[in-house]
Amino acid sequence: MPPRAEEHLRTYRAMLEEFDPATAQVGTGVLPGPQEAAMASCVRHRVLDALPFWEACVFCTAGV
């Protein structure tokens, strides 16, 4: 396991635990919609691609 993986996972867990869907609001700080998507983003999965390292979305190429 990479040296900082546990730290990143703890941070991610804390973010998930603090997220409250009941109070979440649409607006700034959200992913862009399909019409605003960056050239290097996957509209289907709404993730940024690490171009030029991958030619397509990592989820699309994995069949997800």
Q: What structural keywords apply?
A:
single chain, 64 residues, mainly alpha, two-stranded antiparallel ribbon, 6% strand
What does this structure look like?
This protein has two helices and two strands, in the order αββα. It has helices at residues 5-18, 58-61, and strands spanning 41-42, 47-48. The chain is flat. The protein starts with a helix and ends with a helix.
The overall pLDDT average reads: 75
Helix fraction bin: 25-40%
The neighbouring-strand order within the major sheet is 1-2
Give the end-to-end Cα distance, rounded to a whole number of Å: 24 Å
Seen as an oligomer or otherwise, the chain set is single chain
Strand tally is: 2
Largest sheet: 2 strands, antiparallel
Characterize the overall form.
flat
Strand/helix succession? HEEH
Uncertain segments: none
What percent strand? 5-15%
The helix-and-strand class reads mainly alpha
Radius of gyration: 15 Å
Count of alpha/pi helices: 2
In short:
With 64 residues, this protein is mainly alpha-helical. The chain is 28% helix and 6% strand.
Helix-strand blueprint:
Layout: H1 5-18, E1 41-42, E2 47-48, H2 58-61
Antiparallel strand pairs: 1-2
